[in-house]
Amino acid sequence: MTSSAEAVAKILGVENANMLDNFFNIGGDSIKAIYIVSELEEKGFLLHIADIMQKNTLADVAKTMKPIAVKEIYNQNEV
Q1: Mean pLDDT in the chain?
Q2: Distance (Å, whole) CA 79 – CA 54
Q3: Is the dihedral of CA 17, 63, 35, 40 positive or negative?
Q4: What is the Cα 40 distance to its own chain's centre?
Q5: For residue 3, how far is the Cα from the chain centroid?
């Protein structure tokens, strides 16, 4: 299962999210889209909520995902 399908399955509570499934037909909504975007960000992918809301299938959504560039973490402790 791809990262996007895993995130969708986890958030929607479905065992197997098929890449040809429609997000809304398997229980998705705007709030769950926010959770999915957050979950994918934690896995290193950039996806916009609008992409989920506007695409017909999970495969179409997955095509819009992009890897997040490595983030540098700066230490903000007292100097």
Answers
A1: 86
A2: 47
A3: positive
A4: 4
A5: 8
